[in-house]
Write a structure and sequence with these properties.
By secondary structure, the chain is an alpha/beta fold. The protein has nine helices and eight strands.
Amino acid sequence: MRAHQIMTRSVITVTPGTPVAEAARIMLRNHIGGLPVVDASGTLVGMVTDGDFLRRAELGTERKRGRWLDLLVGRGRIGADFVHSHGRTVGDIMSQPAVAVSADAGLAEIVETMEKHSIKRLPVVSGERLTGIVTHTDFVQTLADLATAVPGPTPDDDGLRSAILDALDQAACKHCRFNVVVRNGIAHLTGAVRHESERATAIVAAKSVPGVRDVRDHMWVYPPPEDEFGGGDIVSLQDQPSTDDDQPL
């Protein structure tokens, strides 16, 4: 899937000249945590999020440092922090350039970009123009939609599964070691069998059930326990017939 298939197309935006207080009110009214910032032509120029409102002079939360720490961080950083906490417009506090992806970006690329930049919302652009936005919520919704789209077993599938298990019993297959799943008339045999012949028998048994459209083999063969002891059955000494050598002297 691509960005354009899951993105929100109707995007609420602000401009660099939007007052900070108005941007905050827009977020609150629409229950969103971030706003793409666009210029008059619709070109994406930045991003403002609720995190940009944490260090604000109005709240008394602006960053305060001691004199020696100010010397360490440098004048540039001090000035940037001051603008961010005292700026009156979105253009003063926004992150720029905005991190964005193209409409053709795959989901893996989107996730990697979000994780790399520790962001929850990602503008989608065509060239430089904003065309949509992808958020964590879009991924949750997509996952829910995909899970809903996966067909569950129908009553007919359940009936076929029971019939296949009966057929395996009749064929003397130890079906307790593997599972049978039926979806849309197709039987999937998964798990372990002890011999190739048991695998072949299980497949024939499943195919013999009327209504089964196909059988998919996901089984594997593992060595029977007796092979670990050099072959043959393990018999208790108490079960052996006695001989003259076994009689007490």
